[in-house]
Sequence to fold (301 residues):
Amino acid sequence: MKISKDPLVSIISVNYNGTAVTCEMLRSLKKVNYSSLEVIIVDNGSKENPEKQIKEAYPEAKLIVSEKNLGFAGGNNLGVDVAMGELLFFVNNDTEFDPNIMQGLIEVFHEEQNIGMASPKFHYYFHPGVIEYAGYQDINMFNGRNGMVGSKEKDVGQYDEGGFTHYVHGGGMMVPKEVINKVGKMSEAFFLYYEELDWSERIKQHGYNIYYQPKSLIYHKESMTVGKASLLKTYYLSRNRILFMRRNFGGLKLMPFLFYLCCITIPKNVVTHTLKGDWGHAKAFLKGVFWNLTHFRIKGI
Fold:
C-alpha cells in the first residue's frame, strides 16, 4: 500500500444533538498544521439542523444530514461514502486537536508496513496532561473486556514510543481508504460501542497491523454525548460486549466467555444493581443480554 507524500485526509465526525461541542472541535481544527484536509460532518438525526453553526465554525465543511440516528457506525459510514481522501480520520465530535496531529499519523503509513489503522495518543481534555489512551490491551477471553494502556496516568513520556497495539481508539482512528475498500465499512449491528473493536478485529484478520502513534495527540472530552452512567450506555455495553465476542471468537474460543457470562457476569450485575435499588440499570443490563438470545441471525455471525 503506497500513500502519497502529502495525502488528502478526510476528517469524518458525527454530530448528534451536540452542535456546540462539534463547533469547538471544528475551531480547533483550524489550528492544525496540515492543509490537505477535507472535513465531513454527519448530523445523525439531531433535533435541530446544525448547518448554520457548522458553516460559521468551519465554512469548508461538508455537512451530511441524516433524518434518523444511524448510530456511530452508520453515521460514520455515510461520511465514508462521500470521502475523497486517501486517508480517513474518524474523530469524535467531543475532541480537540493538537496542531501537529496529522504529521505523526501520516508518517505511520509512510514508514511502517501493512498498517491498517492508527490512533494518536489521547489526553483527557478536562484533566491536562493525563493520559486516556496509549494503546489498547488485548481482549480478556473470560469477560470480554480490555483496558486502555496508560489510562489515568500522568503523562511524563512513559508511552512516547510508538508501536503495534491491539485496537484503535474509536474517538480518533485513521484508516486508509484502500483498506476500507478491501475490508468493508464498520458494522452497523452495534449502533453504539464496540464498533471500532469489531472493525479492528476484521482489519487484523485481513493481515493488517494496528498502530499507536504518540507523536500525535488529541484531547477528549470523554463521555459528553451519552453520559457516564446512562441507561443507554449500560444497555449497549451489555448487548455489544456479547455481540462482539460472538462475531469474533466463535467455537471453542467462545466457551470461556459464555461460562463467565452465565456464572459470574449476570449474577454479579443483577445482585449489585438490586442491592443499590437501581432497577433501571438492572433492567437495561438484562435487556442487553437477552437481545443476544433473540438475535441469532446478525450478518457476520
